[in-house]
Specification:
By secondary structure, this protein is an all-alpha fold. The chain contains two helices and no strands.
Amino acid sequence: MENPVLGYHETMDTHEMINFKTVCLMKSKLMQGICFDNDLKALMQKDVQQSVQALQELKGLYEQARTDY
């Protein structure tokens, strides 16, 4: 069986999700630096960790994207 590849629209959707998750990650990291509440900092740190994990999973999907356009 062939290796599965993403269709054109799936490739674009994956790209948009990667961009969105990257912006969310940068915002959480930036807000940690200016936040004084330790509980909120811990919550943002958890968000950063989850975002990094999600980006790694999305990267795996993005590697299946078609590049023969």
